[in-house]
Write a structure and sequence with these properties.
By secondary structure, the protein is of the alpha+beta class. The protein has two helices and five strands.
Length: 141
């Protein structure tokens, strides 16, 4: 009859008193709370990595778009000025650019180099990705 006593929801008090019904405590155990916290930390870690990767991709795409925008403005400037390029980006504002774009990582300026002997202009990003080379566009004029 020990098994019956374990299953029985009543505690019999001494001296023939009425049996008292056991109350089940409500709430969560420490193990349940710990499991929930671990799951939330794992999900937050995954979300953090995904967001950071997306931010980095956005910066790369912005950098590429900025270099191409400057190259397009430089090309129009060369056509309007009888084939003479400029390495000063402020000369492209406001006629060819609304404002001079900045590097999305460190807010640095893009560089424009003129190789007049080969009649080439190269627009280069100031950011060099780890293990790579800076993005650049070369125009022949």
């Amino acid at each position: 009859m020990q098994v019956a006593n374990l299953v029985q929801p009543y505690i019999h008090q001494e001296r023939g008193e009425q049996p008292v019904r056991r109350r089940r405590q409500s709430g969560f155990t420490l193990v349940e709370l710990l499991a929930v916290v671990v799951i939330l930390v794992i999900l937050a870690g995954i979300g953090f990595v995904v967001v950071n990767n997306q931010i980095e991709r956005s910066r790369v795409n912005t950098d590429i778009a900025n270099v191409r925008t400057i190259a397009d403005a430089e090309n129009r400037y060369i056509m309007d000025n009888n084939g003479s390029p400029t390495t000063d980006l402020t000369k492209l504002v406001p006629g060819y650019l609304a404002k001079v774009p900045k590097d999305p990582w460190e807010n640095k300026d893009y560089t424009v180099t003129d190789d007049s002997t080969n009649r080439k202009v190269t627009i280069t990003s100031p950011h060099t990705p780890s293990g790579g080379t800076a993005f650049s566009v070369t125009l022949q004029y």
